[in-house]
Amino acid sequence: MAGTEADEPRIDAAALRSGAPRPPSEVEWEELLMRLELTPRAVRAYLSDAGVRGGLAREPLQRLLLREAWAAKALEALRTGAAVEWSGWARLGEPDAERMSFDFAALRAKNFAQAQRRGLAVWEWRASAEGIGEFTAYQLLRYLMTEDGRSLAELRAALRTE
Fold first, then answer.
1. pTM
2. Full 3-state SS string of the chain
């Protein structure tokens, strides 16, 4: 992965590859997709309730954005069977928390569509990434769901401090 440390997403290789490579059934797959759709709404609700535009919320939002940008690259690699190639996240200036939440929501919507619209064939997608190894689409999406919970807790804590 290239870029500065601040531009590098924190991807826990062991956590990403943990668990079953495919869902036990369509029910679990649909539930996972539904949960992934909820996170952008939760981010917007936290920011709306706190009435902030930046400050301490930037750091957890930046981590969320970087991970989602990496996931977009990973989903493309999963779809094509190529290796994940990370070149960094292009940012314009220092966006405020609200802008970052919109960027995250747009990336999540794109990633969701990549996985959802292709039906159950997604279950067979595999890719690899340097320092991570091989993983499947299901493992990636479960990892995102788990990390979403951590990110929301970080964001909530930062907003309470602000």
1. 0.89
2. CCCCHHHCCCCCHHHHHCCCCCCCCHHHHHHHHHHHHHHHHHHHHHHHHHCCCCHHHHHHHHHHHHHHHHHHHHHHHHHHCCECCCCCCCCCCCCCHHHHHHHHHHHHHHHHHHHHCCHHHHHHCEEEECCCEEEEHHHHHHHHHHHHHHHHHHHHHHHHHC
